Amino acid sequence: MNVDDQLTPALTLRGVSKRYGPVVACDAVDLAVRPGEIHGLLGENGAGKSTLMKILLGLVHRDTGTILRGTEPIEIDSPQVAADLGLGMVHQHFSLIEPLTVWENVILGDTGRVDRAAACAQVEQVAQRYGLPIDPLARVDRLSAGERQRVELIKCLRRDPSVLILDEPTSVLTQAESAELFTVLRRVVQAENRAVILISHKLAEIMAATDRVTVLRRGAVAFHGTTADTTAQELARQMVGRDVSLRAEGAALGLLPVEPQSPAGAPPSTDPAGAAPAADPTTPAALRLRGVTLRVGGLPVLDDLHLDVAPGEIVGLYGVEGNGQATLGELLSGLLVPDEGAVEVGGRPVELTRPGTLHEAGLGIVPEDRHHSGVVLDMSVAENLVMKSLAGVCTRGVLSRRRMHRIARRQMAEFNIVAPSPDTPLRSLSGGNQQRVVLARELSAGPKALVAAQPTHGLDVGAIEDMYVRLRQAAAEGVAVLLISTELEEVMALADRIAVISSGRIVGVLPTAEATAERLGMLVGGVAH
Amino acid sequence: MSAADNIATILSSGARLTVPLAFAACGEYVAQRAGTLNISVEAMMLGAAFGSIAVASATGSATIGLAAGALVGVAVAFVHGNLSHRVQINTFVVGLVLNALVLGLTSYLITVSTFTGHQVWQVSVPVLRDIPIVGPMLFVQRWPVYLLLAVIPLTWWLVQRSRWGLELRAVGENPQAADVSGIHVNRRRRQALLWCGLLAGLGGAYLAVGEVGSFNQNMTAGRGYLVIAAVIFGAWRLGRTLVGCVVFGLADAMRLALPALGVTMNSQLLIAAPYLLALLAMLVFATAHREPRALAQPFQRGTT
Amino acid sequence: MAAATTVAAPPTGPSGPDATGRRLLRRLNPGVGGWQVAAATAATVAVALALSALLISVTGGSPTASAKAMYQGSMASPAAWTTSLLYVAPLLLVAVGACVSARSGFFNIGQEGQVLIGALFGAWAGLRLALPGPLLVVSVLAAAAVGAGAWAGLSALMYRFRGVNVVVSTMLMTFLAQQLVSFAVNTPWLLQESRLGRGTLSPQSNPLPEGARISSLGEYPNLQINGGLVLAIVVAVVFSLALARTRWGFRLTMTGLSPAAARHAGVRVGALGGMALAISGGLAGLAGALLLASPVGTNRLQPGMSLNIGWDGLLVALVARNNPLLAIPVAVLFGVLRAGGSFLAATGVPPFLVDVVKALLVLAFVAPPVVIGMLRKRRRAGEPATTTPATDPAVSKQDAMEGSLA
């Protein structure tokens, strides 16, 4: 037992396990969170963090193990019970209901009579106590990302939780907003003796903001200790289960320095060995965005966006989530048409109102949310591989299953797609293999340019490495690669140039060699509201 | 008869024809705000109309019949709610099947049984009923009409002011977010359907034991769909929905009254008018985000 | 996880027709696992039949006598089969159309109205065009299909340009169609019957001329196979093949499963969905033409002549799980129930019983796969988490624009 004895933990988990069929999501997890501390919960995607939190929140029921609040064992049957027990959660993606007002959202999940005046007063009071200014009468769909997070925090804090759980809270925040958030959390912990669990896959964040840290690996606790006594390198090793030496891995784990005082041992940010060949500035752009503007309800989501990507070059488009990247990804998938501006592929403007033209022009895309537009889960692997180039498997409109299978087998072998057969429904493949299907389809079409939007979201380290290798290889073969990412480390590790997007505009482009975390951070935050 | 008398007649008959629609529309409005595009409102009304007459005939009391009709509506809602918000069968499929089932069942049962007619009593307010034109419309009606006048503000209060209504709206707009806030999404949707069943039941029962005093085969004849049209016409606001009901009721009254007045007018157009108006309303207002965002989307925890 | 992988096709020749059929089924019902669903369906069907029997006995009838009467009216003799099959043809046509629209994700529930519109256009062609025999039949069918197809296409246009929900608009248009037909047969200069001598005019059209009617094939004693049935079966087979084996079918299926992925892959989602709706309406219109021109009715356009074939055809497609080939036996079952129902009156049981049986049977067939699929999903729920879509203001705009862009 790692639990220190001098202090009764606010929340204790003993031997909590949860399995889904043959998959063990949580394997005898022990966790003790003390009042007055920020406890980091670190792990790769799929390590069991979110299952564990769903158990604490009453969304999932554990198979075995005990949960203690203080010294008393508790059963968490529903989110309602969790809230009553003093467990509050701030979700990664907001759990706010947009057409409702701030105060209505805040009291959602309470019981008893609705008292608008009291609710508003309480919102204002909590807002004031923690320095989270907000108008209780505002409709949530009119608020910015930072303001929405404040509403989430207020919603949570007003219930006076003894344990506050934050799931990847900084993914939508600028560095300045993140810093503000951690200040609030410090106040919550020190002044009010609450416990905070901070779930993150970002090492730097865990190192900077937490008191103690627990690392999960494949559902089990791999490490537990005081943050000050460990190093980022050590945590990374515990997270992956072996030494982390590869640059790509380092980037995948967030080992590059984000803060100037960040841990020793991290690879330097400008490592020429790992960089892709620099592009010749005289070659014409394979992908060019010219003044792309797209408005929603009169407000520009993409605002006069200009960007060039030369053949053989990787350009990283870096920014905080929610600054137009998703919209740009949809636009380059052919799902949205810009109000103004043009997209050029291989020097020619593409007619965007007709579907499929981007693909015909030679633009491949690995979309951000592959389940939305990248793949059809209920179709087979083979069908997913050929869906964008049906001409190759059809004779006068009639499908040839034989040709489809031949193409599928070849691509499955080439891209290491692990599936029982080409006829396996895509749904039953792992996330990494699904992503390989997308990449195989897009690269097999011989694109001039490839857009990879958050290509490593939700993948484990092995699959991330694989993705990086493929992207570098594509660039080496002369493909122009546009990497849209919210991960600073990923962009720094892969890109030749970095363009920073904020509020739908490119606010700066600089060669990776000249980019530092601070410069990028200032660019990201400078223009944001 | 004077012109004023004619207008009074049409208004009063329009009011009578509006009542069943308005009852059911209050229910359908709640169901749709919670995210169920409830087609089985037709089954609820038809089943209730039959049930009310059957029970009124058995007990001799039209009022007990009316209550029984409401219960039949609730029973249909219970089946619908469990099939589409527990077992997760597509809500349109459930609605279509329930409509077919209730139509078949009531048609069958009315053929094999005979019922005596019953009607709920009429309230006629002295003096006030003599106000020209609007007097008969407002002050000579059967008592459930005055119940309706209580149901409307109650429904508004429930949806807009009560905690239940807040949760209901949350469930209709964003079930995932409502779920993590600790709201039982499918339970709220089932409850909204039950409220819809209760009111659609009252509306259907009013058709039988209120206006006519008997039941005939396929008595509702598509009034349930009219109710859906009214909610759409009303752009998911209670007030506008009720305006839609009044317009539809008046159109129906005019259709019935005009031939007697010697006015030739296209009755098909009047019958079709409500549906046409609902379609036009959708065409005009479609792009504004008025409908509940999760309307007709099933919710199951664990699916994004 | 285990459930999904065990369903995977065996390694032997995966491209045979059987494999295609299995694939199709699996795709339509992710999580259908053979015998469990079959056993559950057998049980629910038994319950449905038991409930029907209970209803008969409670109301003083005899379930066995009713069953016997239904059998006699629908299957006992060639003449009975003739009646059943006359219903099968329009039911099947409506069902195939419903399969196509449901597979495309543009769910059409307005077949009842489309059947009427088809009959309206068919009647107009049959009564107004002076063409020689076979050409007249063809033009009746063509006018019905095109007219009803265009009618259903209106819903597609309303969706494309104004984002009007297809289910709602097709439903509302059903009632417009009913009044349109009523208007046509009540208006002398349109299709109301012509005055012969005295007497009041009925709201109906003149009977279709002999040359515009669909004749039966072959000369079998008592058993007549109407041309409409052949047409319906050919349509079912053609659409089954088109859905499973052609690029069009691939795109249609993809659109139904994921409109965003389909558009991304170059499919004009709105156009394809509109086409599916038009086809669905067109086939319902053909069914209307059969009701008008085959010996199932009076060969006149009448307001109530759709006989709920549109609603029933939709139910056939639901039971057949949107598979046009499976729709053939299901349509036969529904046709048999209809024909048998008219014989029920002889036993003192109202023919409406058939509607009850039908609705219960639909539930009995539809519920088990959903329930079993849901139980399985629940068992697997929350497996290695999938990524949640990011919150971005454009997402809602994209939803609204989906139709208008394609």
From TrEMBL, chain A:
Key words, A-Z: ATP-binding, Nucleotide-binding
Domain ABC transporter: 11-243, 287-528
Region (Disordered): 257-281
GO molecular function, one term: ATP binding
Alphabetical list of Pfam families matching this protein: ABC_tran (PF00005)
Species this protein is from: Micromonospora haikouensis
Biased composition (Low complexity): 271-281
Protein name per the record: Nucleoside ABC transporter ATP-binding protein
Signal peptide: none
UniProt-listed InterPro entries: AAA+_ATPase, ABC_carbohydrate_import_ATPase, ABC_transporter-like_ATP-bd, ABC_transporter-like_CS, P-loop_NTPase
UniProtKB/TrEMBL annotation, chain B:
Subcellular location(s) per record: Cell membrane
UniProt keyword list: Cell membrane, Membrane, Transmembrane, Transmembrane helix
Residue ranges of the TM segments: 48-79, 91-110, 143-159, 192-209, 221-238, 245-263, 269-288
Example of a GO MF term: transmembrane transporter activity
Topological type in the membrane: Multi-pass membrane protein
InterPro entries documented for this protein: ABC_transp_permease
Any one of the GO CC terms: plasma membrane
Name used for this protein in its record: Nucleoside ABC transporter membrane protein
From TrEMBL, chain C:
Phylogenetic classification of the source organism: Bacteria, Bacillati, Actinomycetota, Actinomycetes, Micromonosporales
Localization per Swiss-Prot or TrEMBL: Cell membrane
GO molecular function terms noted in the UniProt entry: transmembrane transporter activity
Origin species: Micromonospora haikouensis
Primary localization class, coarse: membrane
Record keyword Transmembrane present: yes
Protein name: Nucleoside ABC transporter membrane protein
Compositional bias ranges of the Low complexity kind: 1-10, 384-394
Cellular component, GO annotation: plasma membrane
UniProt keywords, alphabetically: Cell membrane, Membrane, Transmembrane, Transmembrane helix
Annotated region described as Disordered, given as residue ranges: 1-22, 381-406
CDD domains on file: TM_PBP1_transp_TpRbsC_like
